[in-house]
Every structure is written in structure tokens, then in C-alpha cells.
Design brief:
By secondary structure, the chain is of the alpha/beta class. 38% of the residues lie in helices and 19% in strands. Strand 8 and strand 9 form a beta hairpin. The relative contact order is 0.17.
Length: 308
């Protein structure tokens, strides 16, 4: 990977923040943190602020490129969102990362409207997964309606005024029927999901991939042993919280003893999430524009930026 990426240790990367101001407060961070996430303002300053500075430069350059093309063609520059893909394993911290990135990018004056969509909404509904015997492969490439996701991105990039994405509920573990998330010409769209850097997904017979629509992509990386531990810790927290909800799909896990819960979580990891990471997610890592490597304390220890 050395030839394709420039590597920065944590301090080298933090130095690239330059004069980028800290625009989040501790209270903001509290609202953005996920379950069991221990991210603090030091992590935001060292890792996120240099990254938002870089992205701001990229977005501005792309906006200028659209203006130049429009001037050449004698047309008005269309409003085309800058699309950032965020990939990585279950439990690696993608959702929290994407929310903090959204909050920071929206505070830059050049691109105040930043939307966040997760690919969970493009999972097939449970009844379809059951028909296809895919319930135990939820999150694998074949469990997504890739055609619908590609159409969403195609419509977004063509400058449509409003595009809609389905909504997924982690409580009921299914698509919410009749509910959609509306995206109305944002300056930036962050698309977060397990397999957004995947190529050749089953059923995608056209030579078109989700990542074709990305202007920039980020992969959140960590050792599998660390991610598995984070997954087990999160599962234990969910047993004490979300799984207690009577409408939760996983309510039957709510009353497991601690040892039983750990055993179930490790089994799910081995048979589903770990398998998906090894076979589908991790092999896409080197397609990313930027790789963030986390240590066992969830803090980013190394940043790899793809050479242009």
C-alpha cells in the first residue's frame, strides 16, 4: 500500500489542521456519540479538523471545476452535490464518524447544507430477505437493493431537485414502510455503509458501481480482534437498552445473562459480521481515498491519504 498512499502518524496528521477552528462543543459531541463511543474533543481536533480542511479544499476545487465547465458550455452551473462515501465494518464507529463529519462540514461557509444517508435504507425488506434465505446474510452485498441505491445516486448527481431514500429502523430491524428521507440538493452528501466501496455486487449486471458516484471516500480500519471486542461491548449495551423495547426485533436477547450475551455476540460475529468483514468489506479498503486506522482505544493512530 506504501506506493499508493501517503502515511501520517497521528501527530503529523494533526499538524495539518493549520488554523482550522474548533466549531464543536462538548455538548454537541455528546449528541453525536454512538453507543460505547469514547470520542472526545481532542480526537476531533487531531483527526477530524485536518480532514475537514482537506475536504473543504476538495469541495471548493470541484465547485470551481463545475463553474469552469459551465462557462465553457455557456450554461448555468448545475447544483451537483459533492458525495463522500464512508465504509468499514459493523461496530468500527462509522455512524458516529459520519455524524461528526456532517456537523463539522456544515459549519464551513462554502457548503452549509450537508446531508447524511446510510445504506441501511437500501437493504431489502425482511420479507424479501426471508424469501431469498438471506436473513443471516443481512449486510452482505446481496442483501442490498443495489439498483435502487444506484438510481438514488444517479438522480442526485444529475441535479434532481428532490431525491428520496428508504428509511431503516434498527429497533424493528427492517425497512419502515411508507417512510423516506428526502434529500434536496445539498452541497455535500455523506453516504455511510458497510459495502459502499464494493464492486460487482450480485444482480448488478451493468458495469456501474456505487463508488462511481463518489467524489471522495473514507475507510475506517482497525484490527479484527479490536472490532469484535467493540461489537461484543455494543451488544451488551444494547441488551440493557434498545433490546428492552417491546417492539425490538431482538427483545428475546434482553434477558440473557452477561455470559450468555457474550457467547451470543461472539457467535453472531463469527458467523455473520466477521465473515462479511473478511470476505466483502476489508478487500475494498484500498479503493478508498483516505484510510483511518484505529487503535484498540478507538482513537485514530494512522492516516493514509491516497496519492492523486
Amino acid at each position: 500500500m506504501g506506493e499508493r498512499y501517503v502515511s501520517f502518524d497521528r501527530q503529523q496528521w494533526a499538524d495539518l489542521r493549520a488554523a482550522t477552528p474548533m466549531t464543536l462543543r462538548e455538548a454537541d459531541l455528546e449528541d453525536l456519540r454512538g453507543i460505547n463511543e469514547r470520542i472526545d474533543l481532542d480526537e476531533v481536533a487531531a483527526v477530524y479538523l485536518p480532514m475537514t480542511r482537506l475536504l473543504n479544499l476538495y469541495v471548493s476545487a470541484t465547485q470551481n471545476l463545475h463553474k469552469v465547465s459551465a462557462t465553457f458550455l455557456g450554461t448555468l452551473a448545475p447544483k451537483v452535490p459533492y458525495v463522500i462515501g464512508v465504509a468499514g465494518s459493523v461496530a468500527v464507529g462509522k455512524s458516529t464518524f459520519a455524524r461528526i463529519l456532517q456537523a463539522l462540514l456544515a459549519r464551513w461557509p462554502d457548503h452549509p447544507k450537508v446531508d447524511l444517508i446510510t445504506t441501511d435504507g437500501f437493504l431489502y425488506p425482511n420479507h424479501v430477505l426471508e424469501e431469498r434465505d438471506l436473513m443471516n446474510r443481512k449486510g452482505f452485498p446481496e442483501s442490498y437493493d443495489t439498483r435502487a441505491l444506484l438510481k438514488f445516486l444517479r438522480d442526485l448527481k444529475s441535479g434532481q431537485a428532490t431525491v428520496e431514500a428508504p428509511v431503516y429502523s434498527h429497533v424493528v430491524y427492517d425497512i419502515v414502510e411508507g417512510e423516506t428521507a428526502k434529500v434536496c440538493q445539498p452541497d455535500i452528501l455523506i453516504l455511510e455503509g458497510l459495502n459502499v466501496l464494493q464492486v460487482g455486487a450480485p444482480g448488478n449486471d451493468a458495469a456501474e458501481f456505487v463508488s462511481d458516484y463518489f467524489d471522495f471516500s473514507i475507510y475506517i480500519d482497525a484490527l479484527e480482534a479490536d472490532i469484535e471486542k467493540w461489537y461484543v461491548d455494543r451488544f451488551l449495551s444494547l441488551c440493557d437498552s434498545v433490546f428492552q423495547d417491546p417492539s425490538s426485533f431482538f427483545r428475546h436477547f434482553a434477558h440473557l445473562s452477561r455470559d450468555e450475551a457474550i457467547s451470543v455476540a461472539q457467535s453472531i460475529w463469527e458467523s455473520i459480521n466477521g465473515l462479511n468483514l473478511k470476505n466483502n468489506i476489508e478487500p475494498t479498503r484500498e479503493r478508498a481515498s483516505l484510510i483511518l486506522r484505529k487503535g484498540n482505544d478507538h482513537r485514530v493512530s494512522e492516516v493514509l491519504l491516497r496519492k492523486l
